[in-house]
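Go through this one:
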Amino acid sequence: MVTLLSAFDPFALELAEWFRLRSWYRETGRDSRELQKDEKRQLAKQSCDQTFTELVDSYLIACKTKYK
């Protein structure tokens, strides 16, 4: 959708985002602000899940080395 030349044009990027929101609205009939909120929630959940996974992995590694 975004070409190499338009990647440096902020207006082209805004226009592409506008078309993405508009097509989502037409498909779902929901407000575009809901899509943005859902994407923010999903991003926050992914970052929390990754952090928790990393924490558990590091704890398990620490336990293995401690009790050897």
